[in-house]
Amino acid sequence: MKILLDARLYGLENAGLGRYVMNLVQNLARLDRRNSYTILLRKRYFNRINLPPKWQKVEADFRHYSLAEQFRLPGIIAEMKPDIVHFPHFNVPLFYSGRFVVTIHDILMHKQKGLEATTLNPLVYVLKRLAYKTVFRHAVKKAAMVVVPSQFVKKQLTEYYRLNSQKLIVTYEGFDEKVLPLGNQTRTLKNYGLGAPYFIYTGNAYPHKNLRRLVEAIVMLNQRSDRRIYLAIASARDVFVKKIERMAAKLGAKDYVRILGFVPDADLGVLYKNSVAFIFPSLSEGFGLTGLEAMSCGTLVLASEIPVFKEIYGPHALYFNPYDFTSIEGVARDTLKMEEGVRSELIAKAKEYAKKYSWDKMARQTLKVYEDSIGLRSG
Prior knowledge:
Number of strands: 13
Strand order of the largest sheet: 3-2-1-4-5-6-7
CATH superfamily of the largest domain: Glycogen Phosphorylase B
Number of domains: 2
CATH architecture of the largest domain: 3-Layer(aba) Sandwich
Distance between the termini: 14 Å
Helix content: 40-55%
């Protein structure tokens, strides 16, 4: 079987999507010695990735969500003559008519609408949103099979697009074992200007991440405490992070909030482990990878009581109402007061629980999707 994988989103600069593509490529390259692969890459990574003999790299250096993607990608794929194509995101070219599998990570943008969720001119925003809905519908309707990261996303897609549930396959994602609390912890904390105690959030600063209520909770927590308590936000700087900085200043949280920028994996594990807890206040997600990272590094996870987090974290997170900052503050305050023995037991159980998720398992399940999508079964 000849498989083509659109890996143009490869790289951590593409956040969770990039991490997903990186781990899919690396694990398939390690696991599958029978099938042959063609992988499409941006110029930045073309010469930086070493792959097995049955893997062919093809440079496709044009942006996702672009017109070049829509009009040039179908021709490049046709030249390769693959049996199946895997698009790891919804941005499937409308003019591609071959057999393909698509991964849909969430349908956040279906609900996250309005000018507060974009930096675009209103007219441009309306046109791009129309294009988004058109491309998305084409992707899920025309795909041979749809890969999703949770039962929650499967249910959403099935209901929204009236899809046959058997067409959607849940392949839970994993967490990177490279994110470990190693190295000189004192030096790492000093480099980021962090003193104890602090809570940490990692991820982007988009509106649905609900960081305003988190900052409000930290303000209240400090008002009720006789010691300073920090909130560390590890997020690559962009226009949304700048909004959070301005908002923190208006709320009187400037002295409590530390914007760390992009944090490499080598440091991230240390920041997780030395935190009071990782806080995930999001209003909507497709999975919840960063919470699993935090669990594996040995810290508590405080999370929104939304269905997907209940599905992924089970009883191993402490939950709050994400629409009420006093609920976030209350759980954070309880965490600060927690006895060390209770804390250690919760962390140990969560670390063991997190082991059920792995990129290896995800890649094996995805390979089976390829085979099933063209009527094959592995031995």
